[in-house]
Protein backbone atom coordinates (compact mmCIF):
# COMPACT_ATOMS: atom_id res chain seq x y z
CA UNK A 1 0.00 0.00 0.00
CA UNK A 2 0.92 3.66 -0.14
CA UNK A 3 2.17 5.60 2.87
CA UNK A 4 -1.33 7.00 3.21
CA UNK A 5 -2.77 3.48 3.59
CA UNK A 6 -0.33 2.73 6.35
CA UNK A 7 -1.23 5.91 8.15
CA UNK A 8 -4.91 4.97 7.94
CA UNK A 9 -4.28 1.54 9.40
CA UNK A 10 -2.12 2.97 12.13
CA UNK A 11 -4.81 5.43 12.94
CA UNK A 12 -7.28 2.59 13.40
CA UNK A 13 -4.82 0.88 15.65
CA UNK A 14 -4.89 3.93 17.84
CA UNK A 15 -1.55 5.32 16.86
CA UNK A 16 -1.19 8.81 15.55
CA UNK A 17 1.32 8.76 12.76
CA UNK A 18 2.47 10.79 9.85
CA UNK A 19 3.96 9.34 6.71
CA UNK A 20 7.50 10.36 7.53
CA UNK A 21 7.56 9.36 11.17
CA UNK A 22 9.58 6.34 12.19
CA UNK A 23 7.62 3.70 14.03
CA UNK A 24 8.51 1.73 17.09
CA UNK A 25 8.66 -2.04 17.18
CA UNK A 26 5.29 -2.64 18.81
CA UNK A 27 3.54 -0.48 16.26
CA UNK A 28 5.24 -2.40 13.49
CA UNK A 29 4.09 -5.68 14.99
CA UNK A 30 0.50 -4.43 15.28
CA UNK A 31 0.64 -3.16 11.74
CA UNK A 32 1.95 -6.46 10.42
CA UNK A 33 -0.82 -8.29 12.28
CA UNK A 34 -3.45 -6.09 10.76
CA UNK A 35 -2.05 -6.63 7.30
CA UNK A 36 -1.97 -10.35 7.95
CA UNK A 37 1.68 -11.20 7.80
CA UNK A 38 4.36 -12.15 10.22
CA UNK A 39 7.17 -9.71 10.80
CA UNK A 40 10.78 -10.56 11.47
CA UNK A 41 12.34 -7.64 13.23
CA UNK A 42 16.04 -7.12 12.65
CA UNK A 43 18.75 -6.03 15.05
CA UNK A 44 20.92 -3.02 14.21
CA UNK A 45 23.76 -5.41 13.31
CA UNK A 46 21.55 -7.30 10.89
CA UNK A 47 20.20 -4.05 9.59
CA UNK A 48 23.72 -2.87 8.84
CA UNK A 49 24.50 -6.19 7.18
CA UNK A 50 21.48 -5.77 4.96
CA UNK A 51 22.50 -2.23 4.14
CA UNK A 52 25.98 -3.43 3.16
CA UNK A 53 24.49 -6.21 1.06
CA UNK A 54 22.77 -3.62 -1.08
CA UNK A 55 26.28 -2.44 -1.88
CA UNK A 56 27.43 -5.99 -2.58
CA UNK A 57 29.42 -6.22 0.64
CA UNK A 58 29.01 -9.47 2.54
CA UNK A 59 30.53 -9.38 6.02
CA UNK A 60 30.06 -13.13 6.51
CA UNK A 61 31.76 -14.11 3.31
CA UNK A 62 34.27 -16.84 4.05
CA UNK A 63 37.69 -16.95 2.50
CA UNK A 64 38.95 -19.98 0.62
CA UNK A 65 41.30 -22.10 2.68
CA UNK A 66 44.13 -21.68 0.19
CA UNK A 67 43.98 -17.88 0.45
CA UNK A 68 44.56 -17.84 4.20
CA UNK A 69 47.91 -16.83 5.58
CA UNK A 70 49.25 -16.64 9.10
CA UNK A 71 48.62 -13.40 10.99
CA UNK A 72 49.87 -12.20 14.40
CA UNK A 73 47.72 -12.71 17.48
CA UNK A 74 46.18 -9.53 18.92
CA UNK A 75 46.64 -9.10 22.66
CA UNK A 76 44.98 -6.91 25.30
CA UNK A 77 46.54 -6.33 28.72
CA UNK A 78 44.11 -6.09 31.65
CA UNK A 79 44.30 -6.14 35.44
CA UNK A 80 43.99 -4.13 38.62
CA UNK A 81 45.14 -0.52 38.77
CA UNK A 82 48.84 -0.13 39.65
CA UNK A 83 49.61 -3.77 39.02
CA UNK A 84 51.88 -2.72 36.17
CA UNK A 85 49.88 -2.90 32.93
CA UNK A 86 51.34 0.28 31.46
CA UNK A 87 54.87 -0.55 32.51
CA UNK A 88 54.53 -4.08 31.15
CA UNK A 89 53.33 -2.74 27.79
CA UNK A 90 56.36 -0.43 27.79
CA UNK A 91 58.72 -3.27 28.72
CA UNK A 92 57.35 -5.50 25.99
CA UNK A 93 57.80 -2.76 23.47
CA UNK A 94 61.22 -1.48 24.51
CA UNK A 95 62.62 -4.96 25.06
CA UNK A 96 61.93 -5.41 21.42
CA UNK A 97 63.98 -2.54 20.06
CA UNK A 98 66.44 -4.06 17.65
CA UNK A 99 64.03 -6.70 16.49
CA UNK A 100 62.47 -4.28 14.10
CA UNK A 101 63.67 -0.90 12.94
CA UNK A 102 66.42 -0.22 15.43
CA UNK A 103 66.29 3.26 16.88
CA UNK A 104 62.90 4.10 15.39
CA UNK A 105 60.97 6.62 17.43
CA UNK A 106 58.02 4.82 18.90
CA UNK A 107 54.71 6.44 18.34
CA UNK A 108 51.59 5.92 20.37
CA UNK A 109 48.91 5.05 17.84
CA UNK A 110 46.87 2.71 20.05
CA UNK A 111 48.58 -0.55 19.16
CA UNK A 112 52.03 -1.84 18.32
CA UNK A 113 53.75 -4.94 17.02
CA UNK A 114 56.74 -6.80 18.41
CA UNK A 115 58.68 -9.82 17.26
CA UNK A 116 59.50 -12.83 19.41
CA UNK A 117 61.54 -15.88 18.52
CA UNK A 118 59.41 -18.92 19.11
CA UNK A 119 60.38 -22.51 18.31
CA UNK A 120 63.07 -21.30 15.94
CA UNK A 121 60.83 -18.86 14.11
CA UNK A 122 60.38 -15.10 14.30
CA UNK A 123 56.78 -14.50 15.27
CA UNK A 124 55.10 -11.13 15.55
CA UNK A 125 52.53 -10.16 18.17
CA UNK A 126 50.18 -7.18 18.11
CA UNK A 127 49.47 -5.40 21.37
CA UNK A 128 46.55 -3.08 22.02
CA UNK A 129 48.29 -0.22 23.74
CA UNK A 130 45.42 0.96 25.92
CA UNK A 131 45.52 -1.12 29.08
CA UNK A 132 42.42 -2.04 30.99
CA UNK A 133 39.10 -3.59 30.22
CA UNK A 134 37.20 -0.34 29.56
CA UNK A 135 38.27 -0.14 25.93
CA UNK A 136 37.86 -3.89 25.59
CA UNK A 137 34.26 -3.81 26.83
CA UNK A 138 33.40 -0.66 24.95
CA UNK A 139 34.43 -2.36 21.75
CA UNK A 140 32.67 -5.57 22.65
CA UNK A 141 29.51 -3.61 23.35
CA UNK A 142 29.75 -2.47 19.76
CA UNK A 143 30.10 -6.03 18.58
CA UNK A 144 33.79 -5.82 17.84
CA UNK A 145 36.17 -8.34 19.29
CA UNK A 146 39.73 -7.52 18.34
CA UNK A 147 41.44 -9.52 21.05
CA UNK A 148 42.75 -13.04 20.50
CA UNK A 149 44.45 -13.44 23.88
CA UNK A 150 44.12 -11.43 27.12
CA UNK A 151 47.06 -10.98 29.48
CA UNK A 152 45.81 -10.58 33.02
CA UNK A 153 48.43 -8.77 35.09
CA UNK A 154 48.53 -9.48 38.83
CA UNK A 155 51.12 -7.85 41.10
CA UNK A 156 52.79 -10.55 43.12
CA UNK A 157 53.06 -8.29 46.16
CA UNK A 158 49.38 -7.44 46.13
CA UNK A 159 47.54 -10.47 44.81
CA UNK A 160 44.08 -10.63 43.34
CA UNK A 161 42.09 -7.39 43.61
CA UNK A 162 38.60 -6.32 42.46
CA UNK A 163 39.66 -5.24 38.99
CA UNK A 164 41.60 -8.46 38.51
CA UNK A 165 38.31 -10.27 38.87
CA UNK A 166 36.56 -7.78 36.61
CA UNK A 167 39.20 -8.36 33.99
CA UNK A 168 38.75 -12.11 34.32
CA UNK A 169 34.99 -11.78 33.98
CA UNK A 170 35.34 -9.64 30.89
CA UNK A 171 37.73 -12.08 29.23
CA UNK A 172 35.50 -15.01 30.14
CA UNK A 173 32.37 -13.29 28.90
CA UNK A 174 34.09 -12.69 25.57
CA UNK A 175 35.45 -16.24 25.47
CA UNK A 176 39.00 -15.01 25.07
CA UNK A 177 41.82 -17.28 26.32
CA UNK A 178 44.00 -15.75 29.03
CA UNK A 179 47.61 -15.82 30.15
CA UNK A 180 48.40 -14.60 33.66
CA UNK A 181 51.42 -12.33 34.07
CA UNK A 182 52.49 -12.43 37.71
CA UNK A 183 54.26 -9.09 37.86
CA UNK A 184 56.66 -7.29 40.22
CA UNK A 185 58.54 -10.45 41.17
CA UNK A 186 61.59 -8.24 41.78
CA UNK A 187 59.85 -6.72 44.80
CA UNK A 188 60.33 -7.77 48.34
CA UNK A 189 57.25 -9.54 49.60
CA UNK A 190 56.38 -10.83 46.15
CA UNK A 191 54.49 -14.06 46.48
CA UNK A 192 53.83 -15.55 43.03
CA UNK A 193 52.68 -18.88 44.49
CA UNK A 194 49.91 -17.10 46.37
CA UNK A 195 48.63 -15.53 43.15
CA UNK A 196 48.38 -18.99 41.59
CA UNK A 197 46.58 -20.21 44.68
CA UNK A 198 44.12 -17.30 44.73
CA UNK A 199 43.35 -17.69 41.05
CA UNK A 200 42.13 -21.25 41.53
CA UNK A 201 39.18 -19.79 43.43
CA UNK A 202 38.10 -18.21 40.15
CA UNK A 203 38.55 -21.41 38.17
CA UNK A 204 41.76 -20.16 36.64
CA UNK A 205 44.14 -23.01 37.30
CA UNK A 206 47.80 -22.94 36.40
CA UNK A 207 49.29 -25.72 34.31
CA UNK A 208 51.54 -26.45 37.28
CA UNK A 209 48.43 -27.60 39.19
CA UNK A 210 47.06 -29.51 36.23
CA UNK A 211 44.96 -26.67 34.84
CA UNK A 212 45.09 -25.17 31.40
CA UNK A 213 46.13 -21.57 32.03
CA UNK A 214 49.72 -20.45 31.66
CA UNK A 215 51.15 -18.28 34.45
CA UNK A 216 54.42 -16.46 33.86
CA UNK A 217 56.44 -14.63 36.51
CA UNK A 218 57.63 -11.28 35.21
CA UNK A 219 59.12 -8.01 36.26
CA UNK A 220 58.09 -5.11 34.09
CA UNK A 221 60.83 -3.17 35.84
CA UNK A 222 63.80 -5.42 35.05
CA UNK A 223 62.35 -7.07 31.97
CA UNK A 224 62.76 -10.51 33.51
CA UNK A 225 60.27 -13.03 32.17
CA UNK A 226 58.91 -10.77 29.44
CA UNK A 227 60.19 -13.01 26.63
CA UNK A 228 58.73 -16.05 28.40
CA UNK A 229 55.42 -14.22 28.66
CA UNK A 230 55.38 -13.61 24.91
CA UNK A 231 56.14 -17.26 24.33
CA UNK A 232 53.28 -18.27 26.62
CA UNK A 233 50.95 -16.01 24.63
CA UNK A 234 52.06 -17.65 21.38
CA UNK A 235 51.63 -21.14 22.84
CA UNK A 236 48.16 -20.27 24.13
CA UNK A 237 47.17 -18.75 20.80
CA UNK A 238 48.53 -21.67 18.80
CA UNK A 239 46.76 -24.17 21.04
CA UNK A 240 43.27 -22.80 20.65
CA UNK A 241 43.00 -20.33 17.81
CA UNK A 242 43.07 -20.24 14.06
CA UNK A 243 45.32 -17.28 13.38
CA UNK A 244 44.85 -16.93 9.66
CA UNK A 245 43.50 -14.27 7.36
CA UNK A 246 43.37 -13.50 3.67
CA UNK A 247 45.66 -10.55 2.87
CA UNK A 248 44.52 -10.38 -0.76
CA UNK A 249 40.99 -9.08 -0.65
CA UNK A 250 39.11 -5.90 0.15
CA UNK A 251 39.94 -4.62 3.62
CA UNK A 252 38.05 -5.40 6.79
CA UNK A 253 39.26 -4.02 10.08
CA UNK A 254 38.29 -2.36 13.33
CA UNK A 255 38.89 1.24 14.35
CA UNK A 256 40.55 0.97 17.76
CA UNK A 257 41.29 4.61 18.48
CA UNK A 258 40.44 7.87 16.77
CA UNK A 259 40.74 11.57 17.37
CA UNK A 260 40.62 14.94 15.73
CA UNK A 261 44.11 16.28 15.15
CA UNK A 262 44.60 20.01 14.68
CA UNK A 263 46.83 19.70 11.65
CA UNK A 264 45.81 16.39 10.15
CA UNK A 265 42.08 16.29 10.73
CA UNK A 266 40.50 12.96 11.62
CA UNK A 267 43.11 10.34 12.47
CA UNK A 268 41.97 6.81 13.21
CA UNK A 269 44.01 3.77 14.14
CA UNK A 270 42.80 0.69 12.37
CA UNK A 271 43.63 -2.86 13.10
CA UNK A 272 43.38 -4.57 9.74
CA UNK A 273 41.70 -7.96 10.10
CA UNK A 274 41.76 -9.11 6.51
CA UNK A 275 42.87 -7.67 3.22
CA UNK A 276 45.63 -5.12 2.80
CA UNK A 277 44.95 -1.43 3.30
CA UNK A 278 46.71 0.92 0.89
CA UNK A 279 47.06 4.66 0.48
CA UNK A 280 44.32 5.83 -1.87
CA UNK A 281 41.77 3.15 -0.85
CA UNK A 282 38.17 4.25 -0.41
CA UNK A 283 37.02 3.49 3.13
CA UNK A 284 34.08 3.74 5.47
CA UNK A 285 34.09 3.29 9.27
CA UNK A 286 30.74 3.76 10.98
CA UNK A 287 29.51 7.08 9.67
CA UNK A 288 32.96 8.34 8.68
CA UNK A 289 34.13 7.93 5.10
CA UNK A 290 36.85 9.02 2.73
CA UNK A 291 40.08 7.95 1.08
CA UNK A 292 43.28 6.92 2.82
CA UNK A 293 45.42 10.02 2.41
CA UNK A 294 48.37 8.80 4.45
CA UNK A 295 49.21 6.02 6.89
CA UNK A 296 51.62 5.94 9.81
CA UNK A 297 52.83 2.79 11.56
CA UNK A 298 53.67 2.26 15.24
CA UNK A 299 57.22 3.52 14.63
CA UNK A 300 55.88 6.82 13.34
CA UNK A 301 56.92 6.00 9.79
CA UNK A 302 54.83 6.61 6.71
CA UNK A 303 53.75 3.35 5.13
CA UNK A 304 52.04 2.54 1.87
CA UNK A 305 50.24 -0.61 3.00
CA UNK A 306 49.13 -2.60 6.03
CA UNK A 307 48.10 -6.26 6.10
CA UNK A 308 46.19 -8.41 8.64
CA UNK A 309 46.85 -7.76 12.37
CA UNK A 310 48.84 -4.65 11.47
CA UNK A 311 47.82 -1.46 13.24
CA UNK A 312 48.12 1.77 11.27
CA UNK A 313 46.98 5.30 11.84
CA UNK A 314 44.93 6.47 8.91
CA UNK A 315 44.33 10.02 7.72
CA UNK A 316 41.60 11.06 5.35
CA UNK A 317 38.27 10.24 6.98
CA UNK A 318 35.47 12.81 6.91
CA UNK A 319 34.86 12.55 10.65
CA UNK A 320 36.07 10.66 13.70
CA UNK A 321 34.87 7.05 13.91
CA UNK A 322 34.20 5.38 17.24
CA UNK A 323 36.41 2.74 18.79
CA UNK A 324 34.95 -0.54 17.64
CA UNK A 325 33.58 0.68 14.33
CA UNK A 326 34.09 -1.76 11.49
CA UNK A 327 36.48 -0.42 8.90
CA UNK A 328 35.62 -1.35 5.33
CA UNK A 329 37.15 -0.80 1.97
CA UNK A 330 34.65 0.07 -0.74
CA UNK A 331 34.86 0.17 -4.51
CA UNK A 332 34.98 3.96 -4.69
CA UNK A 333 34.48 6.97 -2.44
CA UNK A 334 30.92 7.49 -3.62
CA UNK A 335 29.94 4.10 -2.23
CA UNK A 336 31.72 4.87 1.03
CA UNK A 337 29.81 8.12 1.36
CA UNK A 338 26.45 6.53 0.58
CA UNK A 339 26.98 3.82 3.18
CA UNK A 340 27.94 6.42 5.78
CA UNK A 341 24.88 8.54 5.06
CA UNK A 342 22.48 5.60 5.16
CA UNK A 343 23.96 4.54 8.47
CA UNK A 344 23.49 7.97 9.92
CA UNK A 345 19.79 7.80 9.10
CA UNK A 346 19.48 4.29 10.54
CA UNK A 347 21.29 5.30 13.69
CA UNK A 348 18.88 8.10 14.37
CA UNK A 349 15.95 5.72 14.13
CA UNK A 350 17.64 3.00 16.12
CA UNK A 351 18.37 5.36 18.99
CA UNK A 352 14.73 6.17 19.34
CA UNK A 353 13.69 2.55 19.34
CA UNK A 354 16.47 1.29 21.56
CA UNK A 355 15.50 3.09 24.72
CA UNK A 356 12.17 1.30 24.63
CA UNK A 357 13.59 -2.15 24.07
CA UNK A 358 15.94 -2.76 26.98
CA UNK A 359 15.19 -4.89 29.96
CA UNK A 360 13.90 -3.25 33.12
CA UNK A 361 12.80 -4.81 36.38
CA UNK A 362 9.19 -3.86 35.71
CA UNK A 363 8.91 -5.48 32.34
CA UNK A 364 10.92 -8.55 33.17
CA UNK A 365 7.87 -10.75 33.60
CA UNK A 366 6.44 -9.70 30.26
CA UNK A 367 9.78 -10.23 28.54
CA UNK A 368 10.01 -13.67 30.14
CA UNK A 369 6.47 -14.62 29.18
CA UNK A 370 7.14 -13.60 25.63
CA UNK A 371 10.25 -15.75 25.60
CA UNK A 372 12.51 -12.76 25.01
CA UNK A 373 14.64 -13.47 28.07
CA UNK A 374 15.33 -16.53 30.19
CA UNK A 375 17.39 -15.12 33.01
CA UNK A 376 17.41 -11.98 35.04
CA UNK A 377 21.00 -10.80 34.65
CA UNK A 378 22.24 -8.43 37.33
CA UNK A 379 25.33 -6.33 37.83
CA UNK A 380 25.92 -5.27 41.43
CA UNK A 381 28.07 -2.33 42.45
CA UNK A 382 28.41 -1.22 46.07
CA UNK A 383 30.48 1.04 48.28
CA UNK A 384 32.09 -1.74 50.30
CA UNK A 385 32.79 -5.33 49.43
CA UNK A 386 30.95 -6.66 52.49
CA UNK A 387 27.71 -5.07 51.35
CA UNK A 388 28.14 -6.32 47.81
CA UNK A 389 28.68 -9.85 49.04
CA UNK A 390 25.76 -9.69 51.46
CA UNK A 391 23.46 -8.40 48.75
CA UNK A 392 24.63 -11.02 46.30
CA UNK A 393 24.10 -13.81 48.81
CA UNK A 394 20.61 -12.63 49.70
CA UNK A 395 19.61 -12.26 46.08
CA UNK A 396 20.81 -15.73 45.21
CA UNK A 397 18.74 -17.07 48.09
CA UNK A 398 15.47 -15.72 46.74
CA UNK A 399 13.24 -18.72 46.13
CA UNK A 400 11.99 -18.93 42.59
CA UNK A 401 10.58 -21.69 40.47
CA UNK A 402 12.93 -23.74 38.30
CA UNK A 403 12.05 -22.03 35.06
CA UNK A 404 13.47 -18.81 36.34
CA UNK A 405 17.12 -18.05 36.63
CA UNK A 406 18.79 -15.14 38.36
CA UNK A 407 22.41 -14.52 37.48
CA UNK A 408 24.87 -12.04 38.93
CA UNK A 409 27.06 -11.54 35.89
CA UNK A 410 29.33 -9.03 37.51
CA UNK A 411 29.91 -7.46 40.90
CA UNK A 412 32.38 -4.91 42.19
CA UNK A 413 33.20 -2.14 44.60
CA UNK A 414 32.90 1.48 43.50
CA UNK A 415 30.70 3.75 41.43
CA UNK A 416 28.67 2.44 38.52
CA UNK A 417 31.00 3.05 35.56
CA UNK A 418 30.62 3.22 31.82
CA UNK A 419 32.21 -0.19 31.63
CA UNK A 420 29.44 -1.63 33.86
CA UNK A 421 26.84 -0.08 31.58
CA UNK A 422 28.59 -1.51 28.54
CA UNK A 423 28.54 -4.95 30.05
CA UNK A 424 24.84 -4.51 30.83
CA UNK A 425 24.30 -3.60 27.19
CA UNK A 426 26.07 -6.68 25.92
CA UNK A 427 24.43 -9.12 28.32
CA UNK A 428 21.07 -7.37 28.69
CA UNK A 429 21.41 -6.84 32.42
CA UNK A 430 19.93 -4.57 35.07
CA UNK A 431 22.45 -2.65 37.22
CA UNK A 432 22.04 -2.45 41.00
CA UNK A 433 23.94 0.30 42.80
CA UNK A 434 24.16 0.01 46.56
CA UNK A 435 25.23 3.22 48.29
CA UNK A 436 26.93 4.35 45.10
CA UNK A 437 26.04 6.63 42.21
CA UNK A 438 26.93 6.38 38.55
CA UNK A 439 29.64 8.62 37.17
CA UNK A 440 28.60 11.11 34.50
CA UNK A 441 29.73 8.99 31.58
CA UNK A 442 27.90 5.97 32.94
CA UNK A 443 24.72 7.96 33.43
CA UNK A 444 24.84 9.34 29.89
CA UNK A 445 25.57 5.98 28.38
CA UNK A 446 22.80 4.27 30.37
CA UNK A 447 20.36 6.89 29.16
CA UNK A 448 21.44 6.48 25.58
CA UNK A 449 21.26 2.69 25.76
CA UNK A 450 18.13 2.52 27.90
CA UNK A 451 19.85 0.52 30.64
CA UNK A 452 17.92 0.18 33.90
CA UNK A 453 20.08 1.26 36.86
CA UNK A 454 18.58 1.00 40.34
CA UNK A 455 19.98 2.63 43.44
CA UNK A 456 19.44 1.49 47.00
CA UNK A 457 20.62 2.50 50.45
CA UNK A 458 19.18 -0.47 52.28
CA UNK A 459 19.77 -4.04 51.24
CA UNK A 460 16.15 -4.98 51.84
CA UNK A 461 14.98 -2.37 49.35
CA UNK A 462 16.97 -4.10 46.63
CA UNK A 463 15.91 -7.58 47.68
CA UNK A 464 12.24 -6.60 47.76
CA UNK A 465 12.32 -5.13 44.28
CA UNK A 466 14.11 -8.07 42.74
CA UNK A 467 11.89 -10.52 44.54
CA UNK A 468 8.80 -8.76 43.24
CA UNK A 469 10.21 -8.72 39.75
CA UNK A 470 10.96 -12.43 39.96
CA UNK A 471 7.74 -13.31 41.75
CA UNK A 472 5.79 -11.65 39.01
CA UNK A 473 7.20 -14.18 36.65
CA UNK A 474 6.34 -17.25 38.71
CA UNK A 475 3.82 -19.24 36.76
CA UNK A 476 0.42 -19.18 38.51
CA UNK A 477 -0.46 -22.43 40.24
CA UNK A 478 -3.93 -23.88 39.71
P1 LIG B 1 48.89 0.18 35.83
O1 LIG B 1 48.00 1.08 36.60
O2 LIG B 1 48.46 -1.25 35.94
O3 LIG B 1 49.10 0.58 34.40
O4 LIG B 1 50.31 0.20 36.56
P2 LIG B 1 51.67 0.96 36.16
O5 LIG B 1 52.30 0.31 35.00
O6 LIG B 1 51.39 2.42 36.07
O7 LIG B 1 52.54 0.61 37.43
C1 LIG B 1 52.19 1.06 38.72
C2 LIG B 1 53.43 1.26 39.56
O8 LIG B 1 54.09 0.00 39.76
C3 LIG B 1 54.45 2.17 38.90
O9 LIG B 1 55.07 2.94 39.89
C4 LIG B 1 55.44 1.21 38.29
O10 LIG B 1 56.72 1.74 38.14
C5 LIG B 1 55.43 0.07 39.29
N1 LIG B 1 55.77 -1.21 38.67
C6 LIG B 1 55.17 -1.78 37.59
N2 LIG B 1 55.75 -2.96 37.32
C7 LIG B 1 56.71 -3.16 38.24
C8 LIG B 1 57.64 -4.22 38.50
O11 LIG B 1 57.70 -5.25 37.81
N3 LIG B 1 58.46 -4.08 39.58
C9 LIG B 1 58.41 -2.99 40.37
N4 LIG B 1 59.25 -2.94 41.40
N5 LIG B 1 57.55 -1.97 40.16
C10 LIG B 1 56.71 -2.05 39.11
TrEMBL record:
Subcellular location: Cytoplasm
Keywords: Cytoplasm, GTP-binding, Initiation factor, Nucleotide-binding, Protein biosynthesis
Residues that bind GTP: 79-86, 129-133, 183-186
One annotated GO molecular function: translation initiation factor activity
Tagged with keyword Nucleotide-binding: yes
Cellular component aspect of the GO annotation: cytosol
Entry keyword annotation includes NADP: no
Domain Tr-type G: 70-244
Primary subcellular site in the record, as a coarse category: cytoplasm
Family, per entry: Belongs to the TRAFAC class translation factor GTPase superfamily. Classic translation factor GTPase family. IF-2 subfamily.
Function text: One of the essential components for the initiation of protein synthesis. Protects formylmethionyl-tRNA from spontaneous hydrolysis and promotes its binding to the 30S ribosomal subunits. Also involved in the hydrolysis of GTP during the formation of the 70S ribosomal complex.
UniProt-recorded name of the protein: Translation initiation factor IF-2
Organism, as annotated: Agrococcus casei LMG 22410
Gene expressing this chain: infB
